[in-house]
Amino acid sequence: MTTAQPAGAPSRSSIPPGAAVSLRVSLSEPAGPQGRELARELGVTATFGALMARRGYGADEATRRFLDPKLAHLSSPQTMAGRAEAIARIVQAMRSRERIVLFGDYDCDGITAVAILTEVIRGLGGEATPLLAERFAGGYGVSDQAVDRILEAGPGLLVTCDCGSSDHERLQRLADAGVDTVVIDHHLVPEEPLPAVAFLNPRRPDCPFPFKHLASCGLALSIAAGLRTALGGSYDVRTCLDLVAIGTVADVMPLEGDNRSLVRAGLRQLERAERPGLRALAERANLVLSAGVTAETIAFDLAPRLNAPGRLASPRLALDLLLERDPAKARDLAGAIEAARTERRSIQQRMLDEAMAEIHDRQLHRDPAIVIGRRGWHAGIVGIVAANVVERTGKTAAVISFDGAVGRGSIRAPKGVPIYDLLQSSREATVSFGGHQAAAGVELHEHDLDRFRELFCAAAFEHLKSSGAHASDGVLQAEVMLEPSDVPWDVVRNLDLLEPCGMGNPLPRVGVAGARVVRAQSVRGGHLQLQLALDRGHILYGFAQSMGHRVAEFPPGARVDAVGVLRRDSYRGGTSVAIRIEAVGPSRS
User: Which of 179, 254, 409, 410 has the most CB atoms around its CB within 10 Å?
Assistant: First the structure.
C-alpha cells in the first residue's frame, strides 16, 4: 500500500517549478458580418463586436445593461425570505443596547461580510463585536470552540456571516444559553429548520428572491441598507461596496446579474482608495488603485493577501486591517499581512515543487484525476496548491495534508467538473467532505488514501466518459482574433466594458496572428518577455509565464501566433498594450 510521504522526501527526478502543460495555439475565425454589424451598432471595435456576437449578445437593451451595469438594476430585496425578520431583530438589539456579536468564516467572503456589518452597526450607533472562525481552532463555521468564544463575548444577539446554514446543534446550544441568532449565509441549505430567529439565504427553497448567487458580503450589504432605512441617519452604505467586490470575486461567485452591478460599483469604490487599510495593502502590492482596478486585481493581488493570515494562523489581522481608520496603524497591519503572504508563498512553492515531482515520478498525470497526500504539508495551503496542480496538468486535483492518521485536503478542477458529485461517489473512503461543485474540502484517514484515489479517479473517469470531455489536449483556442484594422488600445478600452470578469463572464482569450518578433528575452523567474510588432505598426508587449526556456524559438524577425489576455500595460503607462501570453508558436498565417 502506498502511504502519504513525509514532507521533503527525496524524489528520483524533479519537475522545474514552472513546468506546465505545453499549449499550442489555435486561432479562431476573423470577425464576420454579424460581428462587424454589432460593432457598428454598439460603437465599438470589430474585435469587440465579434466577441460579443460569439457570446450571444445583440444590439438590444439587455446587452447595453450588461455593458453598463448600475446599482439601479439590482433586484428588489423585498422578496428575500428572512430579510425583514433579520433587520427587525438587529434593530431591536441596537435600540435596546444589546451586544451584537458578528461571527464570520475565515475567508474573504466571511471577513468582508463581518466588516460591513460591524462598520454599519457601529456607524448607526449600535454595539458590534466582530469574531471570525479559526481554521486551526474549530475550523469552518460555528464550531463548538466558536460557541465558547461567542458566549465569552456575552452577546444578546449573534449574527453569522457566511456560515450557519448547517450548524443546527451549535445554534441550539446558543439558543439554550439565551442567545438569539440571525443567520446570513449562501451555502447549501439542509432540510431541517434552523434554530434561528431569522435565516437569510437565497438558496432556501422557499425564498422567491430571483438572484440566487449573492455572496454573503452582498447579503450583508442588503441587511446594512435595511438597517440604514429603519434607523435613519446619514450613514452611506455605498462606502462598503469595495468590500462587497472583494468578497464576491474572492468567493468565485458568478459575475452576472446582481453580482455584476455590485462588483462594478465596488471596483469604482476601490479606485477611490478611501479605505486606509486597502490603500496600505495596495501600496504593499505596488498597486495604484486610482489607476484602475479589475476583478483580476482582487483575485490575484488583494484577496490572496487578505486570506494569507487565516491560512497560516488567525484571520483577525485581515479584519482589523479592513476596519482600521488610522493610516499609520493600517500601514503596520498591512506590513504584517505582507509578511504572512511572503511566508505563505514560500510554503506554497515548496509544497507545489514536491507535489509536481511526485506526480512526475509516479506518472500520476496519466490518471483521470490526481490525488496526492503527504505528511507535514500545511493544511491551510492545500487549496492553493491544488489549484496550481490543475493549472499545470489540466486535471482535477485533490491535495491532502496528513497530520497523524487523519488528513485534510482541498479539491479543485477544470471548469465543468462536478467536484461535489465526484466526492459523493468516493464517500466510503472519507471521514467527511463539504463544499460545492467548483471547490470542496475532504477529510480521510491516511490508510484510506489509496482507496480514495481509486474511487475518486473512477468517478472522474465516468464523468469524462459520460460528458464527452477529455483532459487537456494541449491546444489553446482563441475566443476572438485581434482584427488588423483595430487599434489595440481601443480594443483594450472596449474590453474594460466586460469588467468584472470571472466566474460566468471569463476574460476573453484574444488571438494575434502573424506578429513579428522585435525582441525576446528570458527574465528573472524563468519567464519570457516578447516585444511584438503588428502589421500596421502597433506594438504589443508580451509576457509568458514560465516560458523563458523557449527564448531561442523567437529570434528577431520571426513571425508568431499567440493567444492570451490583452490588457493595459501599467509598467509603460500611456496607451501601451500588453498581452499576457498563454500559448505562442510559429505563425501559420
Answer: 409
